[in-house]
Write a structure and sequence with these properties.
Elements lengths: L18 H16 L7 H16 L5 E6 L15 E2 L6 E10 L1 H6 L5 E8 L11 E7 L13 H12 L7 E5 L5 H10 L2 E5 L3 H9 L7 E7 H14 L2 E6 L4 H9 L8 E2 H4 L6 E6 L10 E3 L3 E10 L4 E10 H12 L1
Helix pairs in contact: 1-2, 4-5, 6-7
Amino acid sequence: MVQPTRSVPSQTRPDRNLALELVRVTEAAALAAARLVGMGDKEAADQAAVDAMRLVLDTVPMDGVVVIGEGEKDEAPMLYNGERIGDGSPPQVDIAVDPLEGTTLTAKGMPSALSVIALSPRGTMFDPGPCVYMEKLAGAGDIADLLDLDTPLPDLLAAIAARRGVDIRDITAVVLDRPRHEDGVRQIREAGARVRFISDGDVSAALLAVSDRSPVDLLWGIGGTPEGVISAAALKCYGGALVGRLWPRDDDERRAAIEGGYDLERQLSKDELVRGDDCFFSATGVTDGDVLQGVRYQGAGAATTESIVMRSRTGTVRRVHARHDRAKLRMYAAERYG
């Protein structure tokens, strides 16, 4: 069976909109990481994003626990799984963070690096346990009922084409460029559909798959379980659907998952990955991509950011374009924003 669910007391449900608090968090991380775009040092870029995100999170009025973070406490001095975040005031929330989704993209100056965070009421986010990876499908709401990991890919693609009234040659799947996907990519192409490879960043790809402005129809493949939970939060806010199934990498991981009570055959919907009915999501672009514009510098004095900020309860999706005074940022965090 899957991890037992926990009851969620009504008083823990967020009763105010934290979205615009969260955008400050992802903006800070993006601005810090952007100083290292193209510098070839993904560890330094990630650390800059972590430091800045943690600094601003302490100012957010909430009592948060990191469920999806940078790793265990002995591996991550900040934003580790289980860390308490915020000023300690209500609401009580679970937090999922990826201060820099696309560390390699940032280091190489490549598109679509993001800083992301998601919140939901305490006890509602899925704990991946020992499983680092999961199979995923994501797409817009009009094909939600078609998304099934047991459906052969050619049949799934044909059904999507039929539902949308287009030729299968007009269908595009976004896929992480990994050797484990070679057979699936072959099936997609033999069915007549197209593949759009990404090197990293499947939260960004999930958003791309559900956007009505996107050339992509479907996200398919095996990616990170933490990213799957964050994507589920995003899609609960934005609309669309996601299904995932845990994918152990080896026998030891499989055994640990089974012993932990995880059902490795079960397909998990976005509402099982994030059960809260009032979740929040924010992402800020670090480098330019299909979903968001990256950080841009305007001379020595200013920088601009673009973010997407969402709340599931209201279905509100905001795009926030911000101009930042770099001199003022340096006054309290020179090493992060200089």
